[in-house]
Amino acid sequence: MAAILDQFGKPFASRLGAAPARRGGPVRPVRARYDVAQTTAENERHWALADGMSADAANNPAVRRLIRNRARYEVANNSYARGMTRTLANDVVGSGPRLQVNIKNKPLAKLIERVWSTWARKIGFASKLWTLRMAECQDGESFGVMTTNERINHPVKLDLQAFEAELCTTPFLNPMQDYRVDGIVLDKRGQDPVAYHFLKRHPGDTYGHMAGPMDYYTVERRHVVHLFRVERPGQHRGVSELLAALPLYAILRRYTLAVLRAAETVANHSVIMQTNGVPNSDSEIAELEDDPLTPLDLENGSIVHLPEGWEAYQIKAEQPTTTYSDFKSSILCEIARCLNMPKNVALGDSSGYNYSSGRLDHQVYFKACEMDRVRLED
Fold first, then answer.
1. Least reliable range by pLDDT among 100-114, 233-247, 302-316, 334-348
2. Are 222 and 370 in contact (CB under 8 A)?
């Protein structure tokens, strides 16, 4: 085997301090080692759930349903989660899109802009975009279907109907069937959507409906707006943008409730009575010795005395600790990172900022909002 030579005609091995390979002898292969590629007793459990599934296989209907339900529960019950998702939708959509027509005929341009603005108000365009962006953040994806609505009091009858993620599905989908993803029909290359399947009835409905739970209809791609973040090549369905933060929300809520419970327990005990003496059945406090946890009611402003050998003291409050606020702030900062949201926007509190540092933190967030607007515009 021939040796690899450098620009001076010498084998590389000799320049690295190793003996050069002898002519006709074996050449030692170059071995590259990565610490993260090693499986050890310390990291085996950490990487146990790592897999090589495709984007669509990893985001299968059962996984998406579970994540979606948990994200909705957290947003509904956690004020920080609700505030972050609403703030993101507010900052991305704002008061709604504007149409600017650049043509030489200025009066005609103004007329077109005015007619478009009237149509947008008639169908609640800004409100529907806000709902779609809110659902995309919470559920991972949202759908808008362009329909004809004769009830619109406008010459243009085009309307945008919002659909939740679970309505786009293919009942009884054969996993071995090509060119199909749950709710989406793909082209012959298996890449781009050509049609979508929508249920006629929401699977979570609790009231009667003329349509069966598995009845669906097909909508062509050109009539469907599918909002979700494509984070992997070949991905056709989305998962919640709060996915990485959901365990942190649970930690934050549990810790807050534990601190509150500890503080309430201490506050509920006004006085604790303690004795180191030997129990005496003839004592005037024998009744207390029989049941040490018996509560005593004291009148306001009363003066009392304790039997010999007994002491009264109050439990010292240990919660919340001095690091309570720092811990919550750190967790919330980590939670907001997956939304590209700065801490003062996530917390709604800029007390620790000056004006310039607040604007500096906002730059990345506003850039992310601008990219979201471009997606919506497209």
1. 302-316
2. no
